[in-house]
Design brief:
Number of domains: 1
Bound molecules: 2-amino-2-deoxy-6-O-phosphono-alpha-D-glucopyranose
Mean pLDDT: 97
Number of strands: 10
CATH architecture: 3-Layer(aba) Sandwich
Helix content: 25-40%
Number of helices: 7
Strand content: 15-25%
CATH class: Alpha Beta
Length: about 230
């Protein structure tokens, strides 16, 4: 793991953008993308740039079950607003939260990932150390699956909804095994709320109780943390 400490999310977004440009020069064609507030500063750098992304494919980590892309809390909506509407890609995949047969859908999503191996994966970090929506206790062998969200995740994500009761209780998420297939991974974390998860990810034992800790077993991982998120290292 390579750790880069930055002052704040804005500087972190700029550092991620520099890494992204290097990855493009090395031939990156498929991006794994994340939602949440963490990658926004990076997406802002991308949309402000003159980069042409029209030959890139993107595959998103996760989506809430029950929300379709027109719902402004859906991750599809988030991606359109923060990135895709401003910077067109060749093709963009986000799990379909309205899939009628979720069991079939997760298999289809795995097929998409197999057909488009991810070169460069962006990750945020849940306060409990989750990546994507892989909550503590998730086996590392799992591929795309339907998740029952942890109570702490529902609470942490309630700020995006009018009421906590509006937060969907389930999500579709790429699994840890799918994420670990990516050739290069960039994890970002900002704020003191992430400090424990950051410490566990970098210095703790590798355990399914803190899903991001498995990233210690990979070489091509860069972690970008601001001062507050790094405060317990
Ligand atoms: C959500 C998403 C994750 C994200 C995490 C952190 O639950 N499923 O992919 O990384 O929470 O969110 P935020 O960046 O808003 O702190």
């Amino acid at each position: 793991m390579k750790i880069i400490k930055v002052k704040d999310p804005q500087e972190g977004g700029k550092v991620a953008f520099e890494l992204f440009k290097e990855a493009l020069l090395k031939g990156t064609k498929v991006l794994g993308l994340a939602t949440g507030s963490t990658p926004v500063s990076f997406y802002n750098e991308v949309t402000r740039s003159n980069l042409d992304l029209s030959d890139l494919t993107s595959i998103n980590l996760d989506e809430y079950v029950g929300l379709d892309g027109t719902s402004d809390q859906s991750y599809r909506y988030f991606m359109q607003k923060h990135l895709f509407d401003k910077k067109p890609f060749k093709e963009t995949y986000v799990p379909n939260g309205k899939a009628t047969n979720l069991n079939e859908f997760v298999k289809e999503y795995d097929k998409i990932i197999d057909e488009h191996p991810i070169d460069w994966q962006v990750l945020g970090l849940g306060q409990n150390g989750h990546i994507g929506f892989n909550e503590p206790g998730t086996p590392t062998t799992i591929t795309t699956h339907v998740v029952n969200l942890a109570e702490s995740t529902i609470k942490a994500n309630a700020r995006m909804f009018e009421n906590e009761s509006d937060v969907p209780r389930q999500a579709i998420s790429m699994g840890i095994a799918s994420i670990m297939k990516s050739k290069q991974l960039v994890v970002m974390a900002w704020g003191v709320e992430k400090a424990d998860a950051v410490k566990g990810m970098i210095e703790g034992p590798v355990t399914i109780e803190l899903p991001a800790s498995i990233l210690q077993t990979r070489d091509n991982v860069t972690v970008i943390v601001d001062e507050a998120a790094a405060s317990k290292l």
